């Protein structure tokens, strides 16, 4: 079964491809006239609403093209920091591009603790239905930026299910086995029909 992933983030495409290929699904980035479409992310909503909005936008783009019957995957994710009331949450992309990782580290205080979690929701459109899978990865914000792998907040996030390294210090296979995205994609894949190989 072939899935088109509506995202501009190539890291997400390779993570999803790695996870779903083990389960028998092929994943490719959705390209319209050779380009990843720029999908608008409604900023004030939860990640579920953002994922649904991305599916709707992608469906409009493929309507009337040869991709109209394709299975489409959309995903939304974010970093939720306990002591900041869940910030940056749905604003994660914006925060990453503005104050960045150093800005997040500056917001941490010894009194409030460093607990945080990544959350992801994967939405798959297939034959007029949308299936959802959720994934959470709990952990802590590190003291320092560390690691060059992954993307986004990986170099400042130490998952509980790891060995003390940040996600930025893990291979993508290690990260995917415990990540929010890995869990969300596994959950949604279980709802789809078993792929015919
Ligand atoms: P979006 O799902 O593309 O809106 O991603 C939101 C933002 O959350 C990204 O720009 C990253 O800052 C952050 N994020 C989501 N997933 C990850 C991850 O697996 N590692 C690191 N940062 C992530």
Number of domains: 1
Could you tell me the mean pLDDT? 92
Structural class estimated from helices and strands: alpha/beta
User: What percentage of residues falls in helices of 4 or more residues?
Assistant: 25-40%
CATH topology: Maf protein
Number of helices: 6
Order of helices and strands: EHEHEHHEEEHH
Bound molecules: inosinic acid
Percent strand: 15-25%
In what order do the strands lie side by side in the largest sheet?
Answer: 2-1-3-4-5-6
> Shape from CA axes?
globular
Radius of gyration: 17 Å
Describe this structure in words.
- By secondary structure, the chain is α/β, with parallel strands linked by helices.
- The protein has a single domain (2-192), classed as Maf protein.
- It has 6 helices and 6 strands, in the order βαβαβααβββαα.
- It has helices at 10-22, 47-62, 92-98, 100-107, 172-178, 180-191, and strands spanning 2-5, 26-29, 71-81, 115-126, 129-141, 157-159.
- It has a 6-stranded mixed beta sheet with strand order 2-1-3-4-5-6.
- Strand 4 and strand 5 form a beta hairpin.
- Helix 1 (10-22) packs across helix 6, helix 3 packs across helix 4 (100-107) and helix 5 crosses helix 6 (180-191).
- The mean pLDDT is 92.
- Inosinic acid is lined by residues 9, 41, 76-79, 92-93, 96, 118, 150-154, 167, 179, 181.
Layout: helices, strands, pairs:
Layout: E1 2-5, H1 10-22, E2 26-29, H2 47-62, E3 71-81, H3 92-98, H4 100-107, E4 115-126, E5 129-141, E6 157-159, H5 172-178, H6 180-191
Parallel strand pairs: 1-2, 1-3
Antiparallel strand pairs: 3-4, 4-5, 5-6
Bound molecules: inosinic acid.
Residues 9, 41, 76-79, 92-93, 96, 118, 150-154, 167, 179, 181 line the site of inosinic acid.
């Amino acid at each position: 079964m072939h899935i088109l992933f509506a995202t501009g983030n190539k890291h997400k495409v390779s993570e999803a491809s790695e996870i779903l290929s083990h389960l028998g699904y092929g994943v490719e980035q959705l390209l319209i006239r050779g380009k990843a479409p720029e999908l608008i992310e409604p900023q004030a909503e939860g990640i579920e609403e953002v994922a649904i909005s991305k599916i709707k936008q992608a469906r409009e783009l493929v309507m009337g093209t040869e991709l109209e019957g394709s299975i489409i995957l959309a995903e939304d994710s974010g970093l939720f920091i306990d002591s900041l009331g869940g910030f940056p949450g749905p604003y994660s992309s914006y925060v990453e591009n503005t104050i960045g990782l150093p800005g997040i580290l500056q917001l941490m205080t010894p009194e409030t603790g460093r607990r945080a979690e990544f959350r992801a929701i994967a939405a798959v459109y297939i034959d007029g239905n949308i299936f959802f899978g959720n994934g959470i990865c709990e952990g802590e914000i590190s003291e320092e930026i560390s690691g060059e792998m992954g993307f986004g907040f990986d170099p400042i996030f130490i998952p509980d299910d790891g060995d003390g390294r940040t996600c930025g210090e893990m291979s993508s296979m290690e990260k995917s086995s415990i990540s929010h995205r890995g869990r969300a994609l596994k959950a949604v894949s279980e709802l789809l029909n078993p792929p015919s190989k």
